[in-house]
Amino acid sequence: MAPQYNWNQKELPVADVSVFPGSGGDFWVRVGDAGPAGRLMKSHLSNGKLVTAAEFSYPTIPAGTKVTILDNPGGMVIPVASTAGMGAAPPQFASIVLRIGDPGPTSGDIVTATLQSGKLITSSPIANDYATGTPVYWVQVGHQAVDRLPPVSRIFKWSEWYPAIGVDVGVPDTAGYNGGAVDLHWKAGSSITSDPSICANVQLQGFCGDIARRDFTKAIVLLRPGAGGDPNPSHTNSWLDGVTPSKPVCVNPSDTYPVCTGQDYYPLYADGTTGAATKSIVLRGLEAAILMKAPVIQ
Hints:
The chain has three helices and 18 strands. By secondary structure, it is mainly beta. The strands form five sheets. Strands 7-10-9-8-11 form a five-stranded antiparallel β-sheet, with no helix packed on it. It has a five-stranded antiparallel β-sheet with strand order 12-13-14-18-16. The chain has a four-stranded antiparallel β-sheet with strand order 4-3-2-6, with no helix packed on it.
């Protein structure tokens, strides 16, 4: 049976609520284990029961599901070896912005924090579990005109311009798919989703986006619009982030995965470089791809 999704307050299946804060409003809990299967929820005690905050959506939670309170959420001390060089938050941010660990299914949480008496204190909850020695990165503001560009894996956010903007994709390809005109519904979301239950649920069809396509002489541009993901994906274990990636799709319009023929394409990265050759693509909701017909040499 497909999972059911709800937007109302719901009691969490906790046998003993005595370990949870009895006052002070909402607090954060993780429902399920750390990682993609877990779900971070804001909750509170009501008449001796642990209930979720109304604004969160989630699958129906079976009895016996593990529920973990996040220790002092919004006030944890991150035990970094040194806070030297961190200083105050950049002027673009209200707080210091951190990434804990490298991006991955069970790591890479983005949290905010402040320096208090030489200690790094979080001001937002941490979704995953981390071992001693996990690297902690903090956001610094750089300027591409004067600063050396760091590896793309260390870039938190680009500003108004980034190197990929300077890459030439050519002009609309009249010899390409659809004569170079845009096709907003090249692949229907219902045919390429990795979770058909989302498309079948009227409340969640905004997370079941079609793939749009336009062919240019030097590249193919793909876009999957819609609400397909946590609108503020600060935590890697959001259930919507885990279920919305599409199935692999062949770039050649006449092919059906896994039999993808035709030429190779090279995904364009934000830093202006291209990735390994591919004949297929996977897109999450709100994700796009520029597939170059030849690798970009910087």
